[in-house]
Amino acid sequence: MLIDQISLRSLNHAKQLKSMGPEPKTQGAYFYITDHVAIDADGALKAYHPDDVGKHCRNDPHIGLDCPANAEYPNTSWWQKALVLDPKNRRRAYIQPSGSAEGFLLSKTWLNDPDASETDPARYVDSTAVPYIVFPGDVYPQMKGTGWKGDAGFAINLNSGNSTAFIVADRGGGSGARLGEGSIALYEALGSKDPSPRKGLEKPIGENLFVVFPHFGKAAEHTWPRSQNEMAAQTDELISAAGGLEAMRNCAKAFSGEKTE
User: Fold this and answer.
1) Would you say 62 and 50 are in contact if contact means Cβ atoms under 8 Å apart?
2) Are 31 and 55 within 8 A, CB to CB?
């Protein structure tokens, strides 16, 4: 299966987190630690612009936050997983006709509001506003115990202590995708000053610990949309049941120790 080593190790360490909390509701939780960083712009109003098509993703200045080539637009059919189709011509991507992002392509996320129109930007999870993580590839979300869109989680930078609640909101990245991809808002919360979907982080921020609570998205009254306060309240409750932040840090120390043995 096309899963990177850190993801497999993290699943092997799920029992370590299961035993931390006395309450059964945390028993499915698992964690992983990685210094790998990839920034996902999907869901942001200004993620992609059609005038950026054909530009070099790293070297050329862009109007949008990300490079259309990273969404494989317009050269393959894969872009249809990342961009909203134009309802009048489903062979091309939808261009926002008005508002602050007029002229930009509309990108979508795996997690969305099914009651909203496909061409409504509010249907999707905004990378610039909401801390979210990306499940890598197509295989990882199908693995038993990894979780599903809308699930809650908590991330902490092991160098600075910066932390944030997050939600599982996107998936993909191809066969080479790895755990560690997340939204712009996620990496801002973890301490990066200018996380770029095209160029990554300006400066490395070290290792991050991610705790995922699989299938707890289903326990929420509304999987999406949800407010930051709702996400934080649910995650605080789950972290507390698992033993608190100190237990998270102890898991990190134990995990790091096993990697060096």
Assistant:
1) no
2) no
